[in-house]
C-alpha cells in the first residue's frame, strides 16, 4: 500500500499537469547535431560495455574439463 503522502501526490498530479500550457517548456527543443551524435555514441559504448561485462561474468572459465567423456549429473563441478 502506498503511504498517504504518495497518494496525495498521485491525486494532485493531474491538477498540476492541467496547469501547464502547451509550448511553455523552457529548454526543450531540438538538440544540436554534434550533441545528439555524441549522446548516441556514448549510449552505444555503454551498451557494448554492459554486454561485454555480462558475457565475461557468464562465460565458463575455471571449470575442469571432462577428459573421460562422461556426464556427471549429481556431482557439482563435474558437469
Protein described:
This protein is mostly helical and 79 residues long. Helices cover 53% and strands 0% of the residues. It is built from 2 helices and no strands. It is elongated. The mean pLDDT is 75.
Q: By helix and strand content, what is the structural category?
A: mainly alpha
The outline comes out as elongated
Main β-sheet description: none
Q: For the CA atoms, what is the radius of gyration? A: 27 Å
Number of E-type strands: 0
Order of helices and strands: HH
Brief account:
This is Hematopoietic cell signal transducer. This protein has two helices and no strands.
Question: What key attributes describe this structure?
Answer:
single chain, 79 residues, mainly alpha, 2 helices, 0% strand, elongated
Please outline the helices and strands:
Blueprint: H1 4-19, H2 33-58
Keywords: Disulfide bond, Glycoprotein, Membrane, Phosphoprotein, Signal, Transmembrane, Transmembrane helix
GO cellular component, one term: membrane
GO biological process, one term: regulation of immune response
Amino acid at each position: 500500500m502506498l503511504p498517504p503522502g504518495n497518494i496525495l501526490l498521485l491525486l494532485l498530479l493531474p491538477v498540476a499537469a492541467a496547469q501547464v500550457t502547451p509550448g511553455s517548456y523552457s529548454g526543450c527543443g531540438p538538440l544540436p547535431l554534434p550533441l545528439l551524435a555524441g549522446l548516441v555514441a556514448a549510449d552505444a559504448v555503454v551498451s557494448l560495455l554492459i554486454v561485454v561485462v555480462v558475457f565475461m561474468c557468464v562465460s565458463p572459465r575455471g571449470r575442469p574439463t571432462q577428459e573421460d567423456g562422461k556426464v556427471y549429473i549429481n556431482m557439482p563441478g563435474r558437469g
